[in-house]
Amino acid sequence: MGIPISRNLLEKIFSRDKPGDAFKYIVTLTKELKDSGRTPIIVLDELQKIKDIKINGYLLYELFNLFISLTKENHSAHVFAITSDSLFIEKVFRETKLYGRARYFLVDDFDYKTTEGFLRKHGFSSEEIELTRKYFGGKPVFLIEAINNRENLKEFCESQLSLRKRQIKEIIKERDFKILREFKDKEEIIIEELDEEIENLVENNVLFFDPVRGVLKPQSRLDLLAIREIVS
C-alpha cells in the first residue's frame, strides 16, 4: 500500500520547487497513523536514482533528514532505504552522518545450507548442487536460471562463465586493473580507501564493496571465476 494523497494536494506539492510540502504531509500522516495505533513502514527502493537531483540543495540529503525526523525524533514510522549501489551506501553513510542513526543490512547470497535446500526442493542431485554452487554460489537469480536449464546444466554453467569473462574484458578493455589480481587466490580483501580503479569496477558491477566491513569482493561467484581466468 502506498501513501494516500489526493490529486489536489499532489498538484499543489509539485507546483512548487521545494519538497517541504510533501515532507510535511508525510510527517503529519505518519503521526496520525501512529496515534491511531498503527506504525507505518516506509520502503524506498533504488534511492541512488535521485542522488544527483537538486531542489534547493540535494534532495537526497533532505530525504534522509526527513527519515531521521520520522524515526529518531518523532518515532512515528520505520523507514527502509534500499539500494543495489554499494558506493552509494558508502557515500550516504559518510555524507549524511547516519552513524548511530541507522542500521545497515546486507542482503547477501544464500549460504551453503540454504542453497542446498533450495535446489533439493527442485529435484537436484548432490552432483548437480555442487556443480551449480561451483559456478554460481548462492546467488538466487542464477540458481533459478540453473533450475530452468537443468537438462543441460553443465553446458549452461560453462556458457555463463564464458559470457561473463567477455563482459568483464569489455569493461576493463586494455587497462591494467591491478586490484583484480588480488582475487587470484582470495575471495575478498580489506581495503582502506576507494580509488578510481575500484570505483569503476564497483560501478560496473564487477566488484562489490561492503562499506561497514571495508571489504571488497567480486559481485558473485561467477564474477570470481571469470576474474581468476582473466588474470591467470
TrEMBL record:
Gene Ontology MF term list: ATP binding
Signal peptide: none
Superkingdom of this protein's organism: Archaea
Keywords for the protein's UniProt record, in alphabetical order: ATP-binding, Nucleotide-binding
Gene3D superfamilies: P-loop containing nucleotide triphosphate hydrolases, Winged helix-like DNA-binding domain superfamily/Winged helix DNA-binding domain
Entry keyword annotation includes Mitochondrion: no
Span of domain Uncharacterized ATP-binding protein MJ1010-like C-terminal: 151-231
Entry keyword annotation includes Nucleotide-binding: yes
InterPro entries per the UniProt record, alphabetical: Archaeal_ATPase_domain, ATPase_dom, MJ1010-like_2nd, P-loop_NTPase, WH-like_DNA-bd_sf
Domain annotation ATPase: ranges: 5-145
Family under the similarity heading: Belongs to the archaeal ATPase family.
Full protein name: Uncharacterized protein
Annotated organism of origin: Thermococcus chitonophagus
